[in-house]
Amino acid sequence: MSMTLVALLGVLCLFLLILLKMPISFAMFMVGFFGMLYMTSPIAAYNVISSGIWEQLSGYSLSVIPLFIFMGELLFRSGITEKIFAAAYAWIGHFRGSMATTTILSSAGFAAVSGSNTATAATVGTIALPEMKKFGYNRALSAGSVAAGGTLGVIIPPSSVLIVIALQAELAIRDLFLASIVPGLILVVLFIATIGLLCRRRPDMGPAGVRSSWSTRWRSLKGVIEIGALFTLVLGGLFAGWFTSTEAAAVGCIGAMVITLIQGKLSGAVLNEAIANALKSSAMILMLVAGAVIFGRFLTITRLPYMVGEWAAALPLPAIMVMACILLIYVIGGALMDAMGFLIISIPIFFPVALALGYDPIWFGVVVCIVTSMGAITPPVGVNAFIVKSLDAELRMGETFRGVGYFIPPYLLCIALLLVLPQIVLFVL
């Protein structure tokens, strides 16, 4: 049996196991291990398991994942979501559609803490959906703004997805974080512009709220300024070269503990819960990384990624058309499974293709992260849409998908801008 056929059968078996509800990490491990057994020998396969996984998981750079997650867990328990939401509403609540806009801004703020699509949607939605219902907002717009805002969780740094992409593709975490800021902000602006246009055309979709006094606005910033200063220190220090990515994460953890302590929210129970949740999330990500090591080694032996890259580069099509097809695959993949899981599966295949087509690896990492996150609101699966539906028993699934449909065009516009003008991503490097 040829190496190409073995590789294709391996990829097919992987997706079959995922469809049968096997965890992605276990599926990648099994397919990769048995594939290497067939292609090489038991000794070689066992050596990859023992040395390859140890080499990857014992790396200094991987410690950035649990540290950033722990920072987010601490800040979440300091009540950051409520504070961001209250502050945003105090400043812009008197405009039409302001509650939906506040939801997007709060999601962007919480995204910098959580680094997760689903966590951002669930946390912000718990607060935002009842508030928008109270003010008589259109239910589709309410659901769509929460679901779309949640997707910012994997785009705005620090993002665990970007960290994993960096580790898998052997890129600098700092560069990916820096490069994702402007596209993330563009997406936020496009979301807000979409809400503004919808509410201008149909004012009943997002009635204006009460104008807050200036004293209320300034008071609302209490508790938000400290967190803003922390992120300025962490990300600014990282980009300025004061810290490595791991040191920046450690500084963030210490700062989060200080802020939580000052606000009177730090207790033994809170600390234990934050540590437990951080360990659970980190273990899940590290298992994905371990599975990706085995599966990636199997694909390397079969030479499938390189053959796909050579084939794509030789196609009589413009590079941008080939890239558009790759991004379409990411949209579909992101709609069918978790963004991180699909990225880990697909990067070993498509990353060499992007390099063969002449695209910058940092640009490719940021773009596929954005495209895959769009999959989280794309039918038929769209995990964020189902999370939002579960938060409000009165919401119908049709209303939810109609709401997320409002935010697909701004996503497509952002992706088109990045395709046509890659400097948007690269000019900051």
| Class per helix and strand makeup | mainly alpha
Pick out the low-confidence regions.
none
Terminus-to-terminus distance: 45 Å
Largest sheet data: none
Order of helical and strand elements: HHHHHHHHHHHHHHHHHHHHHH
How many β-strands, per DSSP?
0
Shape: globular
Average of pLDDT: 82
Question: Roughly what fraction of the amino acids lie in strands?
Answer: under 5%
What level of helicity do the residues show?
over 70%
| Global Rg | 22 Å
Helix segment tally = 22
Query: Into how many domains do the coordinates divide?
Result: 1
Notes on the protein architecture:
The protein is mostly helical. The protein has one domain. 78% of the residues lie in helices and 0% in strands. The chain has 22 helices and no strands. The protein has helices spanning 3-19, 24-39, 42-57, 64-77, 80-92, 98-114, 117-134, 139-150, 160-169, 173-201, 214-220, 224-240, 245-262, 268-302, 304-314, 319-336, 339-356, 361-374, 383-391, 397-405, 408-420, 423-426.
Question: Which secondary structure elements does this structure contain, and how are they paired or packed?
Answer:
Blueprint: H1 3-19, H2 24-39, H3 42-57, H4 64-77, H5 80-92, H6 98-114, H7 117-134, H8 139-150, H9 160-169, H10 173-201, H11 214-220, H12 224-240, H13 245-262, H14 268-302, H15 304-314, H16 319-336, H17 339-356, H18 361-374, H19 383-391, H20 397-405, H21 408-420, H22 423-426
Helix pairs in contact: 1-2, 1-14, 2-3, 2-14, 3-14, 4-6, 4-13, 4-14, 5-6, 5-11, 6-7, 6-8, 6-10, 7-8, 7-19, 8-19, 8-20, 9-17, 9-18, 10-18, 10-21, 12-13, 14-17, 15-17, 16-17, 16-18, 17-18, 18-21, 19-20
